[in-house]
Amino acid sequence: MFKKVGLVIFALALMVVPGLASCAGDSDDTRDVVIGFLADFTGPASLTSVELEKGFSDYMKMIEEDDPIPGVRIRLVTYDTRMDYARPVPGYLWLRGQGAQLIWNFSPVFVAMLKDRSQGDKVPTYTFQADPTTVDEDYIYNFAIGYEEEAEAMMEWLVEDWEKKGMGRPLRVGHVGISGFVSSTQMSTVFRKFAAENPQKVEIKEQFAPLGNMAWGVEISQLRDSDIIVMNTLGPSTASFVKEARDRGYKNKFLGSSLCFMGFWDLIRHALRHDLGMLDGAMAMHGQMLWTDESEFLDKLNANLARYRSPAEGEKLKKGTSWPTGQITGMIMTDVVRRAVDKVGAENVNEAALNDALKDINLTVDGWGESWRFWGDSNILFRMLRVIEYRPADDDWFAVTDWFLPPGFRD
pTM for the complete prediction? Predict the structure, then answer.
């Protein structure tokens, strides 16, 4: 479901990082169920991918120690895509060669690129955000909605919020994205269509820059008069844009896509740590829980974080939502494998059994706006969003709206 993300490179020693060592299943009658993680470990989304893997591995440690799956252990094998469009196919083939029975793919664009292979091999694929070309496709499962639906939600909320203020003129929206990136193109298409259909409500200006761009003079000069700037950038580029926009006199708000701020928050915050006030007015459209929420789900996350990470590392991981997303993925995969084992037996778990179990997932988790299940014929587990904001005085993120369904998912 998540459709919809160069950083300071957290370079790993190896291009491929073998997956989890098991604590619970060393006996001869314990089988590995292998999940292949196709992600970016040395490119612009490396920090996010590393934290996702940490969250997943910590959840698996907890399962192995407290509630092992009878006869089975889950093992993760990873492949580094570097966010290079030439690497998903060899990565998929390598993971399959390592025995991967289910592919966890960081990028919805790469899921689309591999759709024919996944379907031809009948290998289930899980990713975070949906892509228009893979919505409702067999063997493909998404946690969250895609960038187009996210952009529709942004436009609707921005206009409603603006009209409440009674300004008496159209809202001026700036949009900065990455040249050639599918997510930026998808959001741009929605923004331009909405503006064309509602000229009395909103005006749109857009600027696009190469991946890893760090100098924003031209883009900011074009967007400086915006009432709000919607951002769909990655990593250090986001921090550099915010800083340069403030230095050049932009005083209004930023609204990030679901990955722009929260996927790289610790990096962004660190880059601007000498003046966190620059981030006053940073907001995001977000389909995740926050560390400032109160729920049993957050209580469990905090307990796991304290159990497996040092206090110093735990504080760093709490600056974003990548580690929790890894935990969520662990929850989902554990449920899927456990139900597959219950149905066919540990010795018979294969791609088909995992695919059948994925179809039937139905988890109710405290604090979320709806259950995690595939609604109707959709292959999206969780459809809801909410708007969140960063408050420098508290140095944390807080929800400013309740959970809501984007326009395309309402009856």
Answer: 0.83
